Amino acid sequence: MPDSNTSEQADSEGRGSRLLRAKYAALLALGIGGVIYHLWFAYTGGIEMDKHMIIHLGMMMLAVGIAQFDVRALSGGLLHRLDNLVVIPVESAAGVAVAVYFWTNYNRLAYQSIGIYTEMDFIVGTVLILLSLDLTRRAFGIMLPLVGLAGLVYALFGPYFPGILNHQGLPLERLVTSSTVAFNGIYDIILQVSATYIVIFIIFAAFLESYGALGYFIKVGAKAGSYFKSGITQTAVISSLGMGSVNGSAAANSATTGAFTIPLLKDQGIDRNTAASIESVASSGGQIMPPIMGAAAFIMADITGTSYTHIITIGLLPALLFYGTVAFAVHSLTLKEGADLEELTGNLEEADTEFDDDSEDVVRTVDDISLGTQSDRSGILDDTKKSGGVLSALVEGMYLWLPVLVLVYLLMVLRFTPLFAGFWTIVVTIPTALVQRILTTDDNREAVRTFVGDTLDACRLGIVNTAAIALATAVMGMFVGVLNLTGFTQTFAQSLVNLSGGVFALLLLFAMVAAILFGMGMPTVAAYIVSVLLIAPSLAQLGVRIETAHFFVFYFAILSAITPPVAIACIITSELANGKFWRVAKKSLLLGAPLFVLPYVFVANEELLYWSVPGTLVTAPLAFLGLIGISNALLKYMNGPLSRLEQGGLLVASVGVLFAPVLPMNGSMALGIRVACAVALLAFLGWKNDVPAQLRRIAGAA
Fold first, then answer.
1. pLDDT of residue 341
2. What is the pLDDT of residue 692?
3. Whose CB among 136, 320, 455, 602 lies 3.0–4.6 Å from 608's, allowing a Cys bridge?
4. Between 453 and 143, where is the model more confident?
5. What mean pLDDT do residues 540-566 have?
6. What is the average pLDDT value for the chain, to the nearest integer?
7. pLDDT band at residue 234 under the 50/70/90 scheme
């Protein structure tokens, strides 16, 4: 009997392995085809945008279906087998069939229908809506499909809603056709963003990751962290900043960098929930960092009608304040929790051993059979342990900076469109990586082999990473389209102003809550677009500059990634750390609390966005001082525990430094309050860190 069970288990594992290889081959083929197609469109713009979106969405629905297929379905329960062996293949095939239908009937639907559609159009449109909702559920969980479903229910049953939500209601047929075959709703501006900016820069991020960017940022972070008392905990901050800027997703950033940084933090003695919260907060902000900002910079420039250069310029100081505050908070929390800080090399060696112990010779995911070399955790850790400082680590990865410099040059100097610049950046990235491989490897044949494997895997990663976001943008496009049909978008901005009673601070508070709610569980770019369409007009009505309004909404859409009950970044990192979600979310909010203040700070101090001399030179350091003061007060720690009196005084002084310019008093009095608060903060910092004694020691040594 045991022999029979063993044989059946071996057969099951063999079938699972074959299915996994088939899944990998399918994703690889789709990835190669998808990258070639999207690069062709970026270079030529060879077909109409609506046709391009048809191909893009059809391809992404197929990619999500394949990616979500569980190769262990053969050994699962009945419902699990039915879902994987019947439902997912049917949905994948239906996604392709819908795309074929839209393509073959495009001229009639786009130019000849004049609002009159057939019964088959209605059926196909209904199928498209259902596919979008269910495939998004598979990729992102239930929250985002519920938002889309709520929009449909709202459109159908408008007469039953109270107050500003009330409207006449839409017939089912009009709702379906307007959201699909009329090339509104799903096939509208938000999906267009996915089919252009998002896909091209996620492909670029995938190539950078496959060619070593993740290992590079981990190594730089580890080397830089070795100079600080908080040690390797700064690795999460630095690596998440680097990767987040190009991949533009808090969820993807948490999953990729967290898989490396969280074990390292735990090895150093950091509590698992704290390690997860550090990675969550660090991962949430990468997409605010210029020059790429996860493609948000290009979208913001388009919507506001300003230049890309203008957007990244005004976005730089807030981003530096964001990560400077996070780094300081992580430093304080690490010291507060008394982590057993050891030598960096020792920690990495232990982490390497742990990874090796966990990595059995079992094929579990497509990454286990990947042709690429950059998913090997032990290899990245081995590279991190090489001798040399942070400068040598930076220099070793200069080949990764060349494409970024090319991108900035094409956008700022040659004024290429983001799509065309993205195409040439990817074209530059590929041969640059090949040359680097050949120059740094003794065996040229092995260098070419690994380069080809990494390149093919980059294609797979690019399309798989885009697919989930594309489905999310389709659902959110449908949601926004429904709100437009019902007239809600036209009344929401005015309703926010009316609800606030014209009180500016109250309006900002309502805008913050709305942006966080709209952003929960969504990709950052989709959350930003939805939030800005609904909220930014209300801020503009009370005199906020349009770019300031966009950045205010953008920051809170990002911070929704660490805001319960969804907190997508916390969900991912808590699973990676084997921690408790609510504890991770609570610590993330504690670490990230000053970041929720930051958007109010740059609204109150516009010198942080629109540079001036000496205004910006004075305001930026004061803003950083105030933010770290709030951080220390909430953590109840500054080189030692803080009493309640110290905590309260620190909060009052920090708020004074940050918001004195908007106090209802004359300018000289506000300036005096700000100066007094800044002096008090600096004196307190000096006292808690015993700066006089340190200066005396330095003078004595000299």
1. 45
2. 65
3. 602
4. 453
5. 91
6. 85
7. confident
Rounded-to-integer distance, Cα 200 and Cα 247, Å? 11
pLDDT at residue number 461:
93
Report the alpha-carbon distance of residue 632 to residue 591 in Å, rounded: 9
Query: Cα–Cα–Cα angle for 107, 111, 112, nearest 5°?
Result: 90
Q: Tokens at residue 142, please?
A: 């239930």
Instruction: Give the phi and the psi of residue 637 in degrees, each rounded to 5.
Output: -155, 135
Total Cβ atoms within 10 A of residue 97: 14
Place of tokens 């105030």: 626
Would you call 543 helix, strand, or coil by DSSP? coil
- In 3D space, the residue among 127, 126, 108, 104 whose CA is nearest the CA of residue 117 turns out to be 108
DSSP3 helix / strand / coil % (the chain, rounded to 5):
80, 0, 20
CA pair distance 221, 250, nearest whole angstrom: 18
Q: How far is Cα 547 from Cα 528, in angstroms, rounded to an integer?
A: 13
Cis peptide bond prior to 565, omega within 30° of 0: yes
Residue carrying structure tokens 């109010």: 600
Q: Is the pLDDT of residue 552 over 60?
A: yes
Report the C-alpha gap between 211 and 374 in whole angstroms: 7
Q: Report yes or no: 483 and 178 within 8 Å, Cβ to Cβ.
A: no
Q: In angstroms, rounded to a whole number, what is the distance separating the alpha carbons of residues 499 and 491?
A: 12
Q: What is the mean pLDDT of residues 373-377?
A: 56
Confidence class for position 644, pLDDT limits 50, 70, 90: very high
Distance CA 244, CA 254 (A): 9
Give ∠ CA 536-489-549 in degrees, rounded to 5. 0
d(C-alpha 426, C-alpha 447), whole Å: 20
> In sequence order, what DSSP letters do the residues of 70-110 get, joined into one string?
-GGGGGS-HHHHHIIIIIHHHHHHHHHHHHHHHHHTHHIII
Tokens 């300036």 appear where?
671
**Amino acid occupying residue 232:** I
Q: Which amino acid is at 254?
A: S
pLDDT at 107: 95
Task: Give the position of tokens 């290009």.
Answer: 298
Say how far apart CA 135 and CA 471 lie, in whole Å. 7
Question: The pTM is what?
Answer: 0.86
Closest to 196 (Cα-Cα) out of 384, 364, 420: 420
SS3 648: helix
27/19: higher pLDDT? 27
Alpha helices (H) in 605-640, listed in sequence order: 615-635
**pLDDT of res. 340:** 44
State how far the Cα of 494 lies from the Cα of 535, in Å rounded to an integer.
Answer: 10
Task: Return the higher-pLDDT residue of 395 and 187.
Answer: 187
239, 218 Cβ separation under 8 angstroms: yes
Instruction: Compute φ and ψ for 526, nearest 5 degrees.
Output: -65, -40
| Least trusted range by pLDDT, from 522-531, 560-569, 656-665 | 522-531
CB atoms within 10 A of CB 375: 19
322 Cβ contact partners less than 8 Å away, ≥ 6 residues apart = 285, 288, 595, 598
Contacts of 325 (CB under 8 A, 6+ apart): 594, 595, 598, 624, 627, 628, 631
Tokens linked to 243: 């990767």
